[in-house]
């Protein structure tokens, strides 16, 4: 049987003698898991107790009952009222109170190995002072024995307490925390106690000293920063600083990690990642529908389109799904498409077309360059192409294509040819004016310039492209990617009346109009993250956002030139804003440089172009790493690159 107060806990040993012990604030790594562990007279461990919530093996009980753990058995107790607050000092309690007789209320509980059960009023004859627990509406909730791992943890704590070691807070257990315990005094007022462990070092890691007070999270003064470790268990030369966002100004919710500066995925803002911890909700419920509607409307702003005939798409998948949608819906087997080649991803897009029976002709440029407009004009005049595709920024080479001039050329020479832009590595870091440039499709993904975790395929489709879809002579050969499942029934090609009725839900239009719809379940958590990322982008004038990327890009490219290195894209007009592909010095390969960068807390990407993959590396500079002036990512990466090259034996000529 247990009796508790704000600072003491009472147990009864096997001889029915009362046992009291002072509350010991224990360790646990969860903000809401506050409490202490105490031993009973037989050396069993009781706890952790909070006065409101028991938390055992990582699972919190509901608010209307509490959980106690004794030895290898657990039990549940209803929320209790404490009666007759009197405690004895005879068993180590540091605050003695006058002794008095007492009686046990009916319906109290004792712990057995497998269940909680009511006991008789057999202890009322005892005259020992104690404090009793009155329980009502108690639940008989059995709980299986603890796992072996949990039992070993409990035994460790029990042995430590039994040995009377005073430094309990330094015990390295899964329950260790730097959190506070919340208890209540006799009047029901909350008592806040704060445990501040001493900073210590272990294995090269400096432990942050943190004090937590309910809704406040802050760094203690002069608290050391955590150092990240490399693969050989040694600290990085430069400690990785926490990001300047999140709840406090100097603390990040993200674990310390090397700066990810590849051409995607990129570093993410704390607020974006925190959005993914949104509680589970219905994908057709009003709250989520409203969020999805806001996302689709903000995508129109990002792509700079106000044409009501255009349609944004957000579907679970990667950027590659955008290729499938284009090939499955806008061209048919036997059609001709012209693919402008600036790197690896043009090859892949062409291969996707071939998979759907479409004939893809590639117009290739030398590595680091792009097809010239006169070459494109010549190709368009030689053959009737249903579509022309261009990779705005090829992630493999860092080559930037001129979209505006290309679209003007296509509409002048071959007005029936659709203009499709692969913007996976450009949307968010390069300006795109969907309406002004008369584009038909721009496809992208969430994990690059937009700054959202991977998992969403994003497209903007013009009204002209939708009309082309409606006019197709054959049914789409994809199911998930077929627009017949995402657009209203009036857009379905060659669909009989019964099929039109069965697929009459305009999913994307409905979501944008704040109406629930369904074909395939979206990812609510990713949609929330995308919503946050788009709001961050649009929180300033869009031109200022692109200007920040341009300034960071110029800084990187100047640093590359100062190091005596060359870019794959030598001509300034061919150089992307959000990434830089850098040739390594002669005789040097990515394995000579990338590991040294990693030791310094920076991650670059190796080469991807199949012809020159061993000769260059790729530096991504987009998203929060360049738009937040407080972040040192770009400066640190430039300095680390210089040091890594020197360590690899490079000396500027």
Automatic annotation (TrEMBL):
<feature type="region of interest" description="Disordered">
    <location>
        <begin position="104"/>
        <end position="129"/>
    </location>
</feature>
<dbReference type="GO" id="GO:0004760">
    <property type="term" value="F:L-serine-pyruvate transaminase activity"/>
</dbReference>
<keyword id="KW-0808">Transferase</keyword>
<dbReference type="InterPro" id="IPR020578">
    <property type="entry name" value="Aminotrans_V_PyrdxlP_BS"/>
</dbReference>
<feature type="compositionally biased region" description="Polar residues">
    <location>
        <begin position="230"/>
        <end position="240"/>
    </location>
</feature>
<dbReference type="InterPro" id="IPR000192">
    <property type="entry name" value="Aminotrans_V_dom"/>
</dbReference>
<keyword id="KW-0663">Pyridoxal phosphate</keyword>
<feature type="domain" description="Aminotransferase class V">
    <location>
        <begin position="274"/>
        <end position="469"/>
    </location>
</feature>
<feature type="compositionally biased region" description="Basic and acidic residues">
    <location>
        <begin position="216"/>
        <end position="229"/>
    </location>
</feature>
<comment type="similarity">
    <text>Belongs to the class-V pyridoxal-phosphate-dependent aminotransferase family.</text>
</comment>
<dbReference type="InterPro" id="IPR015421">
    <property type="entry name" value="PyrdxlP-dep_Trfase_major"/>
</dbReference>
<dbReference type="GO" id="GO:0019265">
    <property type="term" value="P:glycine biosynthetic process, by transamination of glyoxylate"/>
</dbReference>
<dbReference type="InterPro" id="IPR015422">
    <property type="entry name" value="PyrdxlP-dep_Trfase_small"/>
</dbReference>
<feature type="region of interest" description="Disordered">
    <location>
        <begin position="216"/>
        <end position="240"/>
    </location>
</feature>
<dbReference type="GO" id="GO:0008453">
    <property type="term" value="F:alanine-glyoxylate transaminase activity"/>
</dbReference>
<keyword id="KW-0032">Aminotransferase</keyword>
<dbReference type="GO" id="GO:0005777">
    <property type="term" value="C:peroxisome"/>
</dbReference>
<dbReference type="Pfam" id="PF00266">
    <property type="entry name" value="Aminotran_5"/>
</dbReference>
<dbReference type="InterPro" id="IPR015424">
    <property type="entry name" value="PyrdxlP-dep_Trfase"/>
</dbReference>
<protein>
    <recommendedName>
        <fullName>alanine--glyoxylate transaminase</fullName>
        <ecNumber>2.6.1.44</ecNumber>
    </recommendedName>
</protein>
